[in-house]
Amino acid sequence: MGMVYKVCEFGGLPRIKLSEEAEKTTIPGSKRVVRAFNDNNEPIFDVLFLADEEVPNSSEKLYNRVTG
Question: Engineering a disulfide at 14: which of 7, 29, 38, 43 sits with its beta carbon 3.0 to 4.6 angstroms away?
Answer without folding.
Answer: 29
